[in-house]
Specification:
It is a single chain. This protein has one domain: Hemerythrin-like (Four Helix Bundle (Hemerythrin (Met), subunit A), Up-down Bundle), CATH 1.20.120. The chain is mainly α. The longest helix is centred in the middle third of the chain and has 29 residues, at about 40-70. The protein has helices at about 15-35, 40-70, 75-90, 100-130. It has four helices and no strands. Helix 2 (about 40-70) packs antiparallel against helix 3 (about 75-90). InterPro entries: Hemerythrin, Hemerythrin-like, Hemerythrin-like_sf, Hemerythrin_metal-bd.
Length: about 130
């Protein structure tokens, strides 16, 4: 489970709320992983991946618009990091999910959780400082 901590707040309310939503989506995948009552999780995994992709696209666009609005100097490096994340999400091979659903879900959860925390703490925190 990935819990929101106050240290993840960058001080820009709309961005912080969107980050919290990404945490909530990641936590749903964790809950699915722990659910022993669902034996075939394929459909639910696909739903979570799709929601994560769609919400991430929305969030990145909103964050990038905000960076442009404040004249953030590291906008391009942020855009590259965002594009790299989206490319990784686009390269998820849904054909492989059935061959080990829990393991596949753990891999996605680990990637998203690590990337999100790292990106917020190392990159997004700088946005608020530059205002």
């Amino acid at each position: 489970m990935i819990k929101w901590k106050d240290e993840y707040s960058i001080g820009v309310e709309c961005v912080d709320e969107q980050h919290k939503k990404l945490f909530e989506i990641a936590n749903r995948s964790y809950d699915l992983l722990r659910n022993q009552l669902i034996t075939d999780k394929y459909g639910k995994i696909i739903e979570i991946i799709d929601e994560l992709k769609n919400y991430t696209i929305y969030h990145f666009q909103a964050e990038e618009d905000y960076m442009k609005e404040i004249g953030y100097k590291k906008f391009l490096s942020q855009k590259v990091a965002h594009n790299d994340f989206l490319e990784k999400m686009d390269n998820i091979d849904v054909e492989q999910i059935d061959d080990g659903q829990n393991e596949y879900l753990i891999g996605i959860l680990d990637f998203v959780s690590e990337w999100l925390v790292e990106h917020i703490l190392k990159e997004d925190k700088l946005i608020a400082v530059s205002e």
